[in-house]
Amino acid sequence: MPDADHRIYLLAGVALFAIGFYSLLVQTHLLRRVMALNVMGSGVFLVYIALGAQTPGPIPDPVPQAMVLTGIVVSVCATGLALALADRVQAATGRVELGDHEDAADLPDASPAPSEHHKGTPSA
Amino acid sequence: MTAAWAIALLILSPLAAAALVFAFPRCGRWLALGTVAVVGGASVQLTWKVLTDGVQIHRVGGWGPPLGIDLRADGLSVLMLLITALIGLAVSLYAQRYFAAHESERPLPVNPDVAASRLSAAILDKDSVRRSAETPLRFKSPTRELVRGDRNPALHRERYFWPLFLFLWTALNALFLSADIFNLYVTLELLGFAAVTLVALAGKRAALTAALRYLFVSLTASLFYLLGVGLVYGQCATVDLASLAAKAQPGPALWVALALMTGGLIAKAALFPLHFWLPPAHANAPAPVSALLSALVVKGSFYILLRLWIEAFPALMTPPVAQLFGLLGAAAILWGSVNALVQSRLKLLIAYSTVAQLGYLFLLFPLAATPEGGFTAWSGGLIFLGAHACAKTAMFLTAGNILHAAGHDRIQDLDGMTHVLPVSVFAFGLAGMSLIGLPPSSGFAGKWLLLNAALAQGQWWWVAVMLLGSLLAAAYVARVLAHAFTRVEEPRKPHPIAPVMEWTALALALLAVGLGFASHGLAELLRVGAPVAGAMLLGGAAP
Amino acid sequence: MMRRISVGILSLALLAALSWAVLSLPAQPKGLTEASLARLPESGVSNPVTAVLLNYRGYDTLLEVGVLLLAIVGVWSLRRGEWPAADRRDRPLLLSLLRVVLPVLVLAAGYLLWIGAFAPGGAFQGGALLGGALVLVMLGGLARRLVNRAGLLRAGLGLGVLVFATVCAITLRLTGGLLQYPPGTGGTWIMVIESAALISIGLTLGLLYLGGRPEEDT
Lengths: 124, 543, 218
Hints:
The complex is a heterotrimer of chains A (about 120), B (about 550) and C (about 220).
Chain A lengths: L1 H25 L3 H24 L8 H32 L13 H4 L3 H4 L7
Chain B lengths: L2 H21 L4 H26 L2 E4 L10 E4 L1 H31 L6 H13 L1 H9 L7 H8 L3 H25 L3 H20 L4 H32 L4 H7 L4 H17 L9 H7 L2 H26 L6 H24 L3 H17 L1 H5 L5 H33 L10 H4 L1 H15 L5 H15 L3 H26 L13 H16 L4 H9 L16
Antiparallel strand pairs in B: 1-2
Helix pairs in contact in B: 1-2, 1-7, 2-3, 2-7, 3-7, 3-13, 3-17, 3-22, 3-23, 7-8, 7-13, 8-9, 8-13, 9-11, 9-12, 10-13, 11-13, 12-13, 12-15, 13-15, 13-17, 14-15, 14-21, 15-17, 15-21, 17-19, 17-20, 17-22, 17-23, 19-21, 19-22, 20-21
Chain C lengths: L1 H22 L9 H6 L1 H4 L4 H9 L1 H21 L13 H24 L7 H17 L10 H26 L10 H25 L8
Helix pairs in contact in C: 4-5, 5-8, 5-9, 6-7, 7-9, 8-9
């Protein structure tokens, strides 16, 4: 049964997605979070590929394959941007994590007021 | 100009301009202004076509669904495009001076305080010292970075603002025209990357942290959306919005798919309780960026939610789902308003106000889902969206002016601001009037229609929430104005500010009020291709 | 600990819902295989994936090339003029390896671009190879002068978007439809777009690896 085989890939894809999601919320190190996002992304791509392979006929469905190619390119870009930003955050704060979600709302207040931070430089 | 050219120019001109500005950084301002002209013309042209000839569909590549992608312009799309063009025009005029003002007033070789603190940080960071001892020529030392690149941060910001702004604009135009849920994913990513990078452009520690948090939320949300699209494709073998309505059979796959997509989109739209990233990101971004984010970016995700639930999957829009959206919206209104009231910084107050005002948009789901008063709620919610976009842009631009002139945005120290920046304070007051929903502003027109729809359907509980929200909005706007109008004996000497920065804010505030008089015309426009029917309920008094 | 447990329960619930959903999908979905194969002759290429990428759904790819450029603009906007990987250590082994590998990589990238019209391959695959070649070159310290020519890099990075947009404008003028190629010319236009995209993709990937921006005077 070919479809029984494909379901394994579908299930593996969603399992990767859930594992990535778990690490994203549990890990605090920025690099691990970026990796967790990549694991989630791989899960999604596996689901797409499995969907394309399931169609009847000798040639798999090209549309999900092309979509995955688009998704991979976007994911590479996202990773590059996230790493550069994480590096910049580390340079500015000296930390490799963002702090808890709970203090997100009062983050700007915790940092010094603009006038103290950059003397006389209104950086809105 | 045919509709095809108008549609193509709306997407191609900002995209090509972004690439050109990146290749030739010195032409940023002029290319941006040229794009404003082209995109503005194309938006008006397309609106005219939609008003005269009805919904415009452009089959990209001539293929048509399910194989190809459709671009579709109906009343809702062109309204969003027009709002985007207006805000884009205002922001690009404002940004000309905003970034240039920083440049002229702060030649700033190296800020000694920052340099000293960075130096001491570098000394304390043993790892970096050890690393630089091992490989002395590697460019990793923070001081080295500081000396080379921080020479003119203002110019750096200006150089990168224009291409990023043009990318943001491309993404928004593409999003509002797309009729394909996978293509919408690509536009969402383009939008998210541009928005995050623009926040980080402020360069401060708080802005960088907020930007990274925003990026994580945005990427996670995109992956949820993308997995949802995959499930929809597996079930229906198409990703075309219009074809989905016919093919969608409620079942486990579609329910889960829609839940994934909705979860992702409400995180991007910062609907309560997934709003936590919005206040720090919007408050710490440069002022023109805050305006773009609050006025347009969050609404992109809301727009996709509308298309999904009301057009593509009306079969799944059951009353409990609709009420759940309304409930989250109501919670956002109350939570955002109360938080806005207790903020000590102006930009944070405005950002929390965005959380609250987004809540009103989600009341559209329970109110537009029923035929009775459906169109009234539809046009009310979308007029409200336009009103909020204009008012919030005006407010953030005003906050940028205050920050620039006074050097801070602490609300309790705003006393006497009306002497210093009379035009800006007036703009803030007018925008506040629209946020509160006082007649004859467009905020009033939108709320009035939503109230009428709620009353006609007997859903009085939303009426109570809307009135309470207006009361709270009045309180937080009044709090700012009360300080601004307080007399002070000796007004402090402010930094001089370019007149155009004040007048753009005022123009948008006037628009936020004035659109109220055009609400009949806007409703006519929204009628073109609207997915909901029903008469316009005006409750006896025309807004 | 409480956080781990609650997140664990949330993730398991997500997994259960997702598994339920994928298992309920039709066992043999129709997909779009037939439709894409039926219209393949009109597309100008014979590889169905390339046909989807650059013809049926070419508009996605236009925006995607935009995403690539945006990523590099974003990374450069974050960095304050430093090239972290502009390493000046000597790597004699790498250099002698490069002498062999570099021509092969460039050749293979060009081959992948060309074969994409008929078989698996294309601008993205070729671009990935080119990006890898660029990373090796930079590690070998050979491209120091190239990666500091900011103007050249900017033009090369923007090339993909600019050529794609120009092709869109020209074909719109010719046929009146966005990305609608005149009959019989699809293959040529696709090759033009892909060649420009190849250069931009290769540069983008290589420069994303560096993660900084050139030491230019802004």
